[in-house]
Structures are given as structure tokens and as C-alpha cells.
Design a protein that fits this description.
Elements: H1 3-10, E1 29-34, H2 45-57, E2 62-66, H3 73-79, H4 93-119, E3 125-129, H5 136-142, E4 146-152, H6 155-162, H7 172-182, E5 185-189, H8 192-196, E6 203-206, E7 228-235, H9 242-251, E8 260-267, H10 270-273, E9 281-286, H11 290-297, E10 302-305, H12 315-322, E11 326-330, H13 333-339, E12 345-347, H14 352-363, H15 369-383, H16 386-403
Parallel strand pairs: 1-2, 1-3, 3-4, 4-5, 5-6, 7-8, 7-10, 8-9, 10-11, 11-12
Helix pairs in contact: 2-16, 9-14
Length: 406
């Protein structure tokens, strides 16, 4: 099933429409709620998480789904283009405050619609994907609902990034933390529990997932033949720290350059290719749908993660490992927390020299390549299938419901 079919199925729901799984009448009803339209873009990791969350949680609960409609592409490009220069007054703190008040009022109205729709169902438990500056979790909590949150990233930082100035921006962070403290439980995607340090102990840290069927069997072990294919997957942004990769290649001796190829999968990577030495074969595959991504990754040897937000879960990491690639990654907090003993080749963050040394180690035929690669692959396949991730979440939710006699 391609993304268009998946999106059509998901968008058969809306904030007003309620879908119940009638085959599980004896199961507890759970509302799965998304409020942010941007999450419904089929080209995002958020969509992948939501799609699989709905599929897997419906195996454990009578699922009541509330999803926003994703705008058409024309509207999206206008709404989410933050690179265009705005009028000077739109960059002032006063204007930002007015925008925040407007957004909060709209979010409040949206929350009331969901509350009223839930009141018409036999459901008193909500699983909500967190959106910054949105009061829905508090409103449901104050109306007697149990609230479980899925929090991916720092919402207050995202809002400050996209909306540069506001006299109310100092409220973003404490508001977000307050929502987490009041929830029955928070599933932080990544290591964000370590960031927030909540004294309520009402949280756990989880990962993104994979579907093994998306990745066919490899025809050859990673790094077993030359040239070795190094791949970077993603949309180019500053936090990917891709400059570390470019600098590492430039300081790697020329005699290694014919030993490997660089492959890029994603968008915004064309300008980057111009900085790669001509002595290295470089291929840009462009953006690929997930139906094609797994097949291509199983032909790659090394998956690269030059950097990233310290506490962030990176879906590309899961894809590399599931495809049987050797993984070279910056030693950012989350990856070290979850995979320090599972076969990743870590280099020192922001150090091209450290990355270059790892590349040379592998190009020289390090004896631990196969052992480490297989160790990581088996760990991911065993523990991080979407079904396993949401099964653990379901067990957690049910245990809390039982503990609180809800």
C-alpha cells in the first residue's frame, strides 16, 4: 500500500468523526489524538509514527481516532515556508504575542471540539501526540479523562525556531513542562526524559520503529566488497551537521578515495554535492518513498549520522540498522544512551578528524565490522519493530489504568 492509500485511510477520520473497532468490544476504549496538521504529511517521520501507532494500538484497544486533515500541497507550501522575509512589524514581539494569543484561542476551540466529540463516545482515556502551546491535555485531564502523551522533540524550541519573536515566548517552556507533569504518563520519543528531569516519574523513553518487511534480504554483507557505499539519508538541515562529513572526507588521504562512494537520499542535498572532492564518486538518489527506500538501503554498506539534536530519536538510524548497514554515528546523547553496547561505530561529535579515523578503520578492513553490524541489526529487528514498541506502550497504559482503578 503506497502513501496515498495510507493517507486516504487515515484521513477518513476527522475531529468530528469517531471510529470504533467493533471487533474488540471487551477491550478498553482509547482515543488516539493528533492536533497538528503538519504531522499528517506522508513524507514525514511523524506520519510514519502515527500510521503505525493507529495500526498497532488498535490491536490492544477499541481505538477512537481524531486526526486533522492535511491541507493540499499549495496551502502547505505557503503555510510552512519560513524562509520568506516578513514585513518588519511581523517580526516584533508585540505581533508575535498577538499571533500566540490567536493560536492559543484556536487550539482551545479545537480542544473543545475534541472534548465534545469524546463525550459522545464510550471513551475516557486519551493518547495524544503533543503539540506546542496546545491546552488539550489539560482540558481533558480537568474533565476526568486519563491522559497519555507521546512527545517527540522540544515543542517550545520548535515554536521559537519557526516563530522568531513574541513577548509570550518565555511561557512556552514552563507550559510544556506543566503539561508533562500533569499527564498520567509521557512517552518521550528519544531521551527527552533526561532533558526534562521531571520529579513526577510519570514518563518513559521510547524509540521510533521499523517494519522488517520493508527491508529485503541483503545480497552481500556490509563492507564486504569495494567500493564501499556510504549513504546519508535525510532532508538537509543545520542540525544534521553534514559539514563534519564533508570536512572528514577532505582530510582523508587521497589513496582512500577510490575505495568508497557517497550516496545521498533525500532533499536539499544538491548544493552539498558541490563540496565533495571530484576524486570521490557521488550519487544523489533524491527523495524516495518508503516502499523503495528499504530496497536501496540493503545495497548500501555504511549508514552515516554526522550529527543531530542531542536527545532526538533518528528514524534514519533505525532504517540503516534494519537494512543491515554498518552504522557510523556521532556520539550524541540519545544514540549513546540506547546503543552504546550494540555495535555502532561512534565518533566524537563535531570532530572531522574522529570521523575520518573511523572511515579509515573500516576501509582498512577492521575485523569487528561484521560482528558489530550483525549485532546492531539483530538488536533492532528483535526490539524495535513497531509492533514491539506499541505493545510495550499498551502494557504500560493498561498497568497504569489498573493501578489507578480507572
Amino acid at each position: 500500500m503506497n502513501w496515498k492509500n495510507q493517507l486516504e485511510i487515515l484521513l477518513s477520520f476527522s475531529f468530528i468523526k469517531v471510529r470504533m473497532n467493533q471487533d474488540k468490544k471487551n477491550h478498553i476504549s482509547l482515543a488516539y489524538i493528533v492536533t497538528e496538521k503538519g504531522c499528517m504529511s506522508p513524507n514525514t517521520g511523524a506520519f510514519e509514527h502515527i500510521k503505525n501507532g493507529i495500526s498497532e494500538l488498535s490491536k490492544h484497544f477499541n481505538l477512537v481516532s481524531f486526526l486533522p486533515e492535511f491541507p493540499n500541497q499549495t496551502k502547505v507550501s505557503l503555510k510552512f515556508d519560513f524562509t520568506k522575509n516578513s514585513a518588519w512589524y511581523k517580526q516584533t514581539g508585540f505581533w508575535g504575542m498577538l499571533r500566540d494569543i490567536r493560536d492559543f484561542i484556536n487550539n482551545w476551540k479545537q480542544a473543545k471540539i475534541i472534548l465534545n466529540s469524546l463525550a459522545g463516545s464510550n471513551c475516557k482515556i486519551a493518547y495524544i501526540r503533543v503539540q506546542g502551546f496546545h491546552p488539550l491535555p489539560l482540558i481533558l485531564r480537568n474533565n476526568g479523562y486519563m491522559v497519555f502523551l507521546e512527545a517527540n522533540g522540544l515543542q517550545f524550541e520548535n515554536r521559537r525556531h519557526y516563530f522568531k519573536s513574541s513577548w509570550l515566548s518565555w511561557l512556552y517552556r514552563p507550559f510544556e513542562k506543566f503539561i508533562y507533569k500533569k499527564a498520567d504518563h509521557v512517552f518521550f520519543v528519544g531521551s527527552y526524559g533526561q532533558y526534562w528531569k521531571l520529579d513526577t516519574s510519570n514518563w518513559s523513553e521510547v524509540e521510533n520503529g521499523i517494519k522488517p518487511e520493508d527491508f529485503p534480504s541483503r545480497n552481500f554483507p556490509a563492507c564486504s566488497k569495494r567500493p564501499i557505499k556510504l549513504v546519508f539519508l535525510g532532508k538537509l538541515t543545520n542540525h544534521h551537521n553534514i559539514g563534519v562529513l564533508v570536512d572528514a572526507i577532505k582530510i582523508t588521504p587521497l589513496n582512500y578515495h577510490k575505495e568508497f562512494e557517497l550516496h545521498f537520499i533525500g532533499s536539499g542535498l544538491q548544493n552539498l554535492m558541490a563540496n565533495i572532492p571530484l576524486s570521490i564518486k557521488t550519487i544523489d538518489h533524491g527523495f524516495l518513498e518508503r516502499s523503495k527506500l528499504g530496497k536501496l538501503l540493503t545495497k548500501m554498506d555504511i549508514g552515516l549520522i554526522p550529527g543531530g539534536p542531542s536527545y532526538n530519536s533518528q528514524m534514519k538510524f533505525m532504517d540503516y540498522a534494519a537494512a543491515g548497514c554498518t552504522v557510523i554515528a556521532a556520539n550524541i546523547t540519545h544514540l549513546k544512551n540506547f546503543y552504546d553496547e550494540h555495535g555502532v561505530f561512534f565518533f566524537q561529535s563535531n570532530s572531522p578528524t574522529s570521523l575520518s579515523n573511523i572511515l579509515k578503520l573500516i576501509l582498512n578492513g577492521n575485523k569487528d565490522i561484521n560482528k558489530n553490524t550483525n549485532k546492531l541489526h539483530n538488536h533492532i529487528i528483535k526490539n524495535y519493530q513497531w509492533s514491539k514498541i506499541f505493545e510495550r506502550k499498551a502494557v504500560c497504559i493498561l498497568s497504569i489504568i489498573k493501578l489507578k482503578n480507572f
